[in-house]
Amino acid sequence: MVLQKMDLHPPIIAKQISLKPLTDADIPIFDKWLDKDYIKKWLGEKEDWLHEISERNGTYHFLKHFMVYCDDRAIGYGLYADCFFLKDLEEEPHEGSSLKDLYGDVAEKNHTYEIGYLIGEEEYLNKGIGKTIIRMLEEKIIAIGGKQIASDPAEENTISIKALLSNGFEKKRDGDYRKTIA
Questions:
Q1: Residue that wins the pLDDT comparison between 63 and 104
Q2: What is the pLDDT of residue 8?
Q3: For residue 6, is it within any domain?
Q4: What's the maximum distance between 2 C-alpha atoms anywhere in the chain?
Q5: pTM of the model
Q6: How far apart, in whole angstroms, are the C-alpha atoms of residue 133 and residue 166?
Q7: 3 state DSSP class of 82
Q8: Average pLDDT, stretch 111-132?
Q9: Which of 5, 83, 100, 177 counts the highest number of beta carbons within 10 A?
Q10: pLDDT for 11
Q11: What percent of the chain has pLDDT over 70?
Q12: How far apart are CA 120 and CA 73, in angstroms?
């Protein structure tokens, strides 16, 4: 008798992945993900993220937050932000650059958008989902007329950088990757 190994994690195909606007009901799971060590090391202060989300219809109206789903299961998070507004936020420098340093050259609204994403459920890591999330965020930015996409990963976050590069982003400088879409 020959025993075959069962695949407990079948391949994930892109059509199973979707983005849905973040709601108040999603905040507890996002909060839980922010406590995971592999996420904490890249994102900074948990309280800042939760504050931005709680103010998503007010002060931070220019940040658009999404939950990433595989079928009906929340597995991650994504966002895009108009850099015209983002450049004026007072934040600690990231990769040695403030948001003003990164996006001070953005002179008009609806031109350059920063994206960010994470995969909160470990069993979905290293399956190409980051690339899919980037493409889906790009589609949303194209639909609203954006011209350029930016991302500011830490240079040590090589997995994220590889996903960006494979989606056509180019390195402008450390911590500043851009893609022209129009």
A1: 63
A2: 46
A3: no
A4: 69
A5: 0.87
A6: 12
A7: strand
A8: 95
A9: 83
A10: 54
A11: 87
A12: 11
In a domain, 4, yes or no: no
- From CA 126, how far away is CA 46, in angstroms rounded? 24
- Tokens describing residue 140: 């949303």
Residue 8 placed within a domain: no
CATH number, residue 164: 3.40.630.30
Radius of gyration of the chain from its Cα atoms, rounded to whole angstroms = 17
81 within some domain: yes
Q: Is the pLDDT of residue 98 over 90?
A: no
Residues 155 and 116: their CA atoms lie apart, in Å, by 15
**Residue 13 pLDDT greater than 90, yes or no:** no
How far apart are the C-alpha atoms of 85 and 101, rounded to whole Å?
A: 13
Residues 142/109, Cβ–Cβ less than 8 Å:
no
Q: What is the pLDDT of residue 51?
A: 94
Q: CB 53: neighbour CB atoms within 10 A?
A: 19
The H-or-E segment that residue 10 falls in is none
Residue found under tokens 């989300």: 53
Range of the domain at 122: 16-180
What is the chain's percent helix, strand, coil content, to nearest 5?
35, 25, 40
Domain count, the chain: 1
Parallel/antiparallel/unpaired status of strands 73-82 and 63-70: antiparallel
